[in-house]
Amino acid sequence: MSEGAAVGGTGVSGPGEGAFRATSRVLLIDPSGAVLMFLQYGKDHAVHPRWITPGGGVDPGESHDQAAIREVFEETGLRLDRVPAAFLEEDFAPDQRWHPYQRGHWAWYDVRVDRFNPVRDGWTAEERADVVEWRWMTADELAAEAHDVEPENLPAMLRERIEESR
Q1: What's the rounded Cα separation, in Å, for the pair 108 and 3?
Q2: Which of 68, 94, 115, 141 is the most buried (most CB within 10 A)?
Q3: How many whole angstroms separate alpha carbon 54 and alpha carbon 29?
Q4: Which residues contact 142 (CB under 8 A, 6 or more apart)?
Q5: Where are the domains of the chain?
Q6: Statement: 7-164 belongs to CATH 3.90.79.10
Q7: Is 19 left (phi over 0), alpha (psi -120 to 50) or beta?
Q8: Residue 98 gets which letter from DSSP?
Q9: Whole-model pTM?
């Protein structure tokens, strides 16, 4: 969940119109089809937290793949040697309730893992303050969740990934 920079080290543009951030998001999916989620605040604790997957900003000089591997380790303690090719890579409009940037580009990864308990050893002070809880959740549980899920289509995305792997 590191504050990161755009691919190639061009940096995250500053606050204001057109601010940009490149991110990598990772679906860590266990054998039952549940995905690891974090209930986390965004830019302001005055706005309710939302469920998000592990992932975060792409640091200067880093690829999306490298950012995905680093973020999974920092946020969960799980060491990945590699990630598969991103199953989705696209520009997106960040939800302004949680993000200080107006434009984003994300790469999404599908990594199959055995269920584990994440560790907080790699968390920043901000993450320790912002992460409310973590939980393994199925697509149905995500769809029924009272808190927002980011992105909104995550339950459908998870179902699609599971179907494609059968």
Answers
A1: 17
A2: 68
A3: 11
A4: 35, 37, 51, 149, 154, 155, 158
A5: 7-164
A6: yes
A7: beta
A8: T
A9: 0.85
